[in-house]
């Protein structure tokens, strides 16, 4: 991964992968987490979208949103340059990444992950438009961080 570029995260961002990514180049290093008011609002809604058996509360999601805001770079005025063909709500994450020149979106969201699959037409189209931007799940990110450069 090239240094000096921010990374965009989603509500499905795995905390372990995030911590490893931000530590990869040390405190104040080149890796950064990006967020926006849209991303923060989505984090605050996680408890509505998560099955009750996991016991996620509004207080926990609010605490998570505050934590993300405390160590993220917040982007504003994110233009729509991309519209996801299956889940338009996921478009914001791509648009945020493009606006800030991110190289990586880390997500567990299946619609975002399909953009990395060049066997699919939407994956080929995405890679053609945004060859600098990769989409990984947290496990893939951890594997990359563990592999020798």
- So what's the oligomer here? single chain
Structural class: alpha/beta
Give helix % range. 40-55%
The CATH topology: Rossmann fold
**Average pLDDT rating:** 80
The CATH architecture comes to 3-Layer(aba) Sandwich
CATH class: Alpha Beta
Shape: globular
Our Rg estimate from Cα atoms comes to 15 Å
Low-confidence runs (pLDDT<50, min 5 residues)? 1-17, 22-29
- Element pattern in H and E: EHEHHHEHEHHEH
Question: What features would you describe in this structure?
Answer:
This protein has about 150 residues and is an alpha/beta fold. The chain has one domain (about 5-145): 3-Layer(aba) Sandwich (Rossmann fold), CATH 3.40.50. The chain has eight helices and five strands, in the order E-H-E-H-H-H-E-H-E-H-H-E-H. The protein has helices at about 15-25, 35-45, 45-50, 60-70, 90-100, 110-115, 120-130, 140-145; strands at about 5-10, 35, 70-75, 105, 135. A five-stranded parallel sheet has the order 3-2-1-4-5. Strand 1 (about 5-10), helix 1 and strand 2 (about 35) form a beta-alpha-beta unit. The N and C termini lie close together (about 10 Å). The model is unreliable at about 1-15 and about 20-30 (pLDDT under 50).
Task: Give the gist of this structure.
With 149 residues, this protein is α/β, with parallel strands linked by helices.
């Amino acid at each position: 991964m090239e240094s000096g570029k921010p990374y965009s995260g989603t509500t499905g961002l795995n905390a372990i992968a995030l911590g490893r990514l931000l530590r990869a180049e040390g405190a104040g290093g080149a890796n950064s987490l990006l967020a926006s008011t849209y991303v923060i609002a989505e984090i605050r809604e996680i408890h509505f979208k998560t099955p009750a058996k996991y016991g996620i509360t509004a207080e926990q999601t609010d605490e998570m949103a505050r934590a993300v805001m405390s160590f993220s770079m917040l982007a504003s005025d994110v233009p729509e340059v991309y519209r996801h063909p299956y889940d338009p709500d996921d478009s914001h994450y791509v648009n945020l990444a493009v606006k800030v020149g991110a190289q990586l979106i880390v997500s567990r969201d299946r619609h975002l992950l399909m953009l990395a699959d060049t066997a699919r037409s939407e994956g080929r189209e995405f890679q053609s438009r945004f060859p600098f931007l990769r989409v990984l799940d947290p496990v893939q990110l951890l594997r990359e961080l563990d592999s020798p450069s």
